């Protein structure tokens, strides 16, 4: 019997301080304030951050003065976005779409497909089942890409903190005050969203932001670590499954009799395969497998990265630029020194001592990250399995647009109408099993010897994944095609779903065990 892993110990308490950032009287030796005046707290609408596929994430350098005007004063910030500037903007944009838009998109798509299927069953849906399928596809992508803008129609918006837009870049004095207010911005935020990449804990600011958030035990449950690579992989899995489902629907649509899937002209089948199925299976899936292996290898290195963390070895952009603005020639504040002084105020026995040889506060912070923060980080990332709500939103949702076709078959073949309704539920089970087999293949590929090139590993594990899918699906098809008895359909379908549950539950348990060990 495996003992229950112990709950992580509380993070070291930090004495509350009364240091505040004022608009005047800036001290070069100041540390980061834990509080900030209300008129300095600014947030920016999330849809502005997502414009142009995250063009605001392009670089961390100086920007036009009007970028600061995109943010506005707010009493509270919905989410504080913590990220590093070396990670590509497309990856971070997809991660934000996943966190903030994917569940609304899946929910609206599900509602749309249920409504259209009901109208189809009553014979009230113009255009038949293709209209229902198109409506499900359209609403999903409309909400996925434009949910933040749609919220503005009823005067609602998500205000987030993004340093480039909420800290002035055009005025050095305002920029200094904004940087010194970072701790206060965190204190006024309802949620911390970490866009994690392998570089994250090598950046002083990133480690400080996460530790600053977690120093208050009651806020531990309100932060979320989102690997940007996992978001990209979920999106690629969604693309692969959507193309496959759409190709199958096109194949059925081109046939003369949608009630007989096998009676399709050879030319139609070849055309549909080349336009939809082959590109997905020969390009999207291999690329997904290749980068899935790379992401899993990064996660395998994370425990060592956490155990060997040192704030003294962390990097900052200001040090890379020798503390000189390359555009204006003006001196830059040393971010490392600001972080170090703040840590001294929090953890040093004598916060006012400036002895260069006294690094007790840095060692204390390193211990915090290695022994306490790592517990929460590994618990969040776990075995690399994304939260199930995102798997549902991006993977299982690809089965929603298929429902109108099955409803049409049920209405058309009234003698065996229940067969098609029951048979539909194999589709979401297949999508979930596909993603599980993909994650399993990534883990196997990541554990192959380093001498095996990654592209060869991707090909090998892709064939293994295909074999697993065949073993999962073909027994069901052999049973239902040999018997139209109700018990055969229900039992075989139940077996499919029991297998899916058995496969997914251990992944979440493994995530918790890794976090608690």
From TrEMBL:
Record keywords, A-Z: Membrane, Transmembrane, Transmembrane helix
Coiled coil location: none
Membrane spanning residue stretches: 94-122, 128-147, 225-254, 266-285, 388-409, 415-442, 454-474, 486-507
Keyword Transmembrane helix: yes
Superkingdom of this protein's organism: Eukaryota
Descriptive protein name: Transmembrane protein
Organism per entry: Symbiodinium natans
């Amino acid at each position: 019997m495996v003992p229950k892993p112990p709950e992580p110990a509380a993070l070291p308490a930090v004495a509350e301080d009364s240091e505040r950032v004022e608009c005047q009287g800036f001290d070069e030796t100041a540390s980061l304030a834990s509080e900030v005046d209300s008129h300095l707290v600014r947030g920016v609408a999330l849809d502005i951050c997502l414009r142009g596929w995250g063009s605001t994430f392009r670089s961390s350098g100086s920007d036009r003065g009007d970028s600061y005007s995109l943010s506005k004063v707010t009493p509270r910030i919905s989410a504080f976005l913590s990220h590093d500037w070396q990670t590509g903007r497309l990856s971070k944009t997809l991660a934000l779409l996943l966190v903030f838009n994917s569940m609304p998109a899946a929910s609206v798509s599900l509602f749309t497909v249920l409504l259209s299927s009901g109208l189809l069953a009553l014979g009230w849906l113009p255009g038949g089942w293709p209209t229902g399928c198109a409506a499900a596809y359209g609403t999903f992508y409309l909400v996925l890409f434009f949910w933040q803008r749609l919220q503005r129609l009823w005067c609602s918006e998500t205000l987030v903190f993004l340093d480039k837009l909420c800290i002035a870049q055009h005025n050095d004095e305002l920029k200094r005050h904004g940087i010194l207010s970072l701790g206060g911005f965190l204190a006024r935020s309802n949620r911390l969203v970490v866009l994690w990449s392998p570089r994250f804990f090598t950046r002083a600011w990133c480690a400080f932001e996460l530790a600053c958030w977690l120093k208050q035990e009651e806020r531990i449950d309100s932060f979320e670590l989102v690997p940007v690579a996992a978001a990209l992989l979920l999106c690629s899995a969604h693309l692969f499954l959507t193309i496959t489902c759409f190709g199958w629907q096109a194949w059925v649509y081109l046939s003369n009799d949608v009630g007989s899937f096998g009676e399709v002209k050879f030319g139609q089948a070849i055309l549909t395969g080349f336009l939809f199925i082959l590109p997905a299976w020969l390009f999207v899936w291999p690329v997904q497998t290749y980068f899935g292996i790379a992401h899993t290898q990064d996660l395998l290195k994370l425990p060592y990265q956490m155990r060997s963390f040192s704030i003294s070895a962390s990097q900052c952009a200001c040090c890379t630029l020798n503390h000189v603005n390359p555009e204006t020639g003006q001196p830059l504040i040393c971010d490392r020194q600001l972080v170090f002084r703040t840590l001294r105020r929090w953890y040093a026995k004598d916060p006012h001592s400036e002895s260069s040889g006294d690094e007790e506060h840095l060692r204390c912070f390193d211990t915090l990250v290695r022994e306490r923060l790592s517990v929460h980080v590994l618990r969040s990332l776990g075995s690399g399995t994304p939260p199930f709500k995102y798997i549902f939103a991006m993977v299982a949702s690809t089965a929603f647009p298929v429902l109108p076709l099955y409803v049409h078959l049920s209405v058309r073949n009234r003698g065996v109408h229940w067969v098609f309704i029951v048979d539909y539920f194999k589709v979401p089970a297949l999508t979930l099993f596909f993603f599980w087999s993909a994650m399993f293949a990534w883990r196997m590929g990541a554990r192959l010897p380093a001498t095996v090139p990654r592209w060869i590993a991707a090909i090998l594990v892709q064939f293994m994944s295909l074999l697993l899918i065949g073993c999962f699906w073909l027994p069901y098809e052999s049973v239902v095609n040999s018997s139209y008895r109700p018990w055969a359909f229900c039992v075989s379908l139940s077996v499919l779903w029991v297998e899916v549950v058995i496969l997914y539950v251990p992944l979440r348990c493994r995530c918790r065990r890794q976090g608690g060990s």
